[in-house]
Write a structure and sequence with these properties.
This protein is an alpha/beta fold and 285 residues long. It has a single domain, classed as Rossmann fold (3-Layer(aba) Sandwich), CATH 3.40.50. 48% of the residues lie in helices and 10% in strands. The chain is built from 14 helices and five strands. Strands 2-1-3-5-4 form a five-stranded mixed β-sheet, sandwiched between helices. β4 and β5 form a beta hairpin. α6 packs antiparallel against α11.
Length: 285
């Protein structure tokens, strides 16, 4: 299919940039055929909650392995795919089919986690333009955005990030990451079960451990990180920063939020203390 065959409504700047980026990676990939051969019988899946830095991981993998089976998904459960079927869900259905067929040598999954308040605010601003024009969001007062945040529809986030590994990952992959102690000092974790390998990285550690952890996980030297989908490049970034700087909670709410299994499993006490300080109301200091 040529660009001329694509409906005009899809030919926005982002689509064109993405198409040329894919073409660039394919052309560069002609010089990386040994990369393809190394993983030609594997599936590499970036499988995460939303807004945890997965686009950068995916883009880096596609840059290094443009001809391999490299996929990204946030939800693969049957209920989600059925409910969202009006959007096609072709990619999700394809991934589920590949996983069920089990014709791969290894299933290599990279998953990420993120401090939950930052993650949920980012998820709101990723999706709010589905229900509101960008110009209208930019005019919203803090109280209006707070209302949107407190009433995020399920189509924005099918599960809370804190529940994602139990309700999504474990049910789909059959591995409970909580069964494995997380090395908080090292900052990432590699799990091996049969022919499935899982790398888990908190977004807060990504800059520090990304190349080391992914290189070790794949037994392949990653030399370049391709950063994409950063909030600073988006039209609602100013409103996002404004809301993020204004949003605060009381100590009881923070204690509850940051005592979940999800938070305590992946983050150090020092990190959790820092998260609480970041979101605490000034009157609670």
């Amino acid at each position: 299919m040529s660009i001329a065959d694509i409906p005009r409504k899809y030919l926005n700047k982002m689509t064109i940039v993405k198409l040329f980026r894919i073409l660039k990676y394919k052309l560069l990939g002609l010089f990386k055929l040994r990369n393809y051969r190394k993983f030609k019988n594997d599936i590499i899946l970036v499988y995460t909650p939303g807004k945890v830095g997965s686009s950068t991981v995916l883009e880096t993998l596609k840059y290094n392995f443009p001809f391999n089976k490299v996929y990204q998904a946030h939800y693969l459960n049957a209920e989600y795919i059925e409910k969202m079927s009006k959007y096609g869900m072709h990619r999700q259905r394809k991934i589920v089919k590949l996983l069920n067929e089990k014709k791969y040598n290894k299933l290599r999954i990279i998953t990420l986690v993120r401090e939950p308040i930052s993650q949920s605010i980012s998820e709101l601003f990723q999706n709010i333009n589905k229900d509101h024009k960008i110009a209208d969001v930019q005019k919203m007062k803090y109280e209006d955005v707070l209302h949107e945040y407190n009433n995020m529809p399920k189509t924005y986030r099918w599960f809370e990030a804190e529940d994602w590994f139990d309700l999504e990952f474990k049910k789909t992959i059959g591995v409970d990451v909580y069964d494995y102690p997380f090395d908080k000092g090292k900052g990432y974790q590699i799990i091996s079960e049969a022919n499935t390998e899982i790398l888990t990285i908190p977004l807060e550690n990504l800059n520090r451990v990304f190349m080391e952890s992914v290189s070790k996980f794949l037994d392949f030297k990653i030399k370049k990180v391709i950063k994409v989908n950063e909030s600073k490049d988006k039209p609602l970034n100013d409103k996002y920063v404004e809301f993020k700087n204004s949003y605060k909670l009381g100590s009881p709410e923070l204690d509850k939020k940051f005592s979940s299994k999800y938070v305590t499993h992946f983050f150090t006490e020092a990190q959790i203390g820092g998260f609480k300080d970041k979101w605490r109301r000034g009157s609670d200091d």
